[in-house]
Request: fold
Amino acid sequence: MRTIRPSACLANVRYEIRGDLARRANEMERMGYDIVPLNIGNPGLFGFRTPETMRLAMIENLRASEAYSHQKGIFPAREAVVMQQQSRGVRGVSVDEVFMGNGVSELIDLVLRALLATDDEVLVPSPDYPLWTAAVTLNRGRAVHYPCRSENGFEPDPADIEALITTRTRAIVVINPNNPTGAVYSRATLEAIARIAEKHHLVVFSDEIYDQILYDDAEFVPMATLVHGTLCATLSGLSKVYRACGYRVGWAVFSGEIEQAREYLNAIDKLSSLRLCSNVPGQWAVQTALGGYQSIYELTRPGGRLYQSRKAILEGVAASKYLQVCAPRGAIYAFIGIKDGVLPHFDDEQFAMDLLEHKRVLLAPGTSFNTPYKTHFRITNLPTEEVLKDVFVQMEDLLDSYASGAVPVARAPELKVVQAKR
Reply:
């Protein structure tokens, strides 16, 4: 039989968040092992519920959800997005500039597919949410990574961004609050990026899915309030702030130089038509979500579950002989690194596999996020404090074995006793 091989365009596509490690974790769970899944930001997996008012809005409109909707989405959902943008100071937006999608993930693909020609370049942060790099690659473009350095709190230097611009550059991606680092960019940094984009006539793609998940005194500044002299696409959705990942509802709203971008927006409309429409039942939750009580603040203030879990991570890192972290100021992750010099041969992918095999903890190695270094890994702060405290005990034990040169114990499949469920 002739071997069926995948497309060569997948050669440079990374998504280890759901890759080999996750597949191995699934195998172990089928054997009866209890795995702590810290690799993905999936609130429902950790007991977080979508607000009841959103569930009711969806249920009450099921009768109106059986037909296709307009390719851009239902009017009440798009209108609610417009009203949110206007309340934040974004000018010149109407429902015509709002596209509803099956989560932000689908929209990232659509907005890039409508823009890019072969070898066009898109400036993407490093570390990034890997779908951005993957989607650029899959849509014939080239992702050019601008550094977000830990010594600067993972905030980018605008000069680094501008230095990478060529005649092939079409767009700049901004992820704020940031996944995977939890950085929340300052107004000055965002203003500088906006001016660079305007100067070079670049589209700005602002991924703001974590816009209301902030800690302490962090301030979120919507990119669309700063970009006026070029096109800005703001991408957000229900998955994280509203704990509704499975609803698969996201939106892209365009602002700035709209008239100069009509052909491009029409191209996105065409692509939206090709998939007919996005999930209709979930769209009915948007108006209630954006216009209702914002329960996320109960979770992010001191005493709230996300705040306390973040605190447990910071305390676990502070107590470690090996770990360091820039305290996340937003989102639901921490991007943890190894202290300089303590484990010179540390490899993030090997550590992730060893931690899974021997400690039953699943996390995402830093290189999954398109970093040039192998010293970091990402975990989510969605579990409870108690779970995270135990995770850091397990990590420290494994790192101690690295430091002593000990060989880790046998892989899970070779064990004869199945770990009991906790």
The CA atoms of residues 215 and 329 lie 5 Å apart. The chain has two domains: 8-48+298-414, 52-291. The domain at 52-291 is CATH 3.40.640.10 (Aspartate Aminotransferase; domain 2). The chain is about 35% helix and 15% strand.
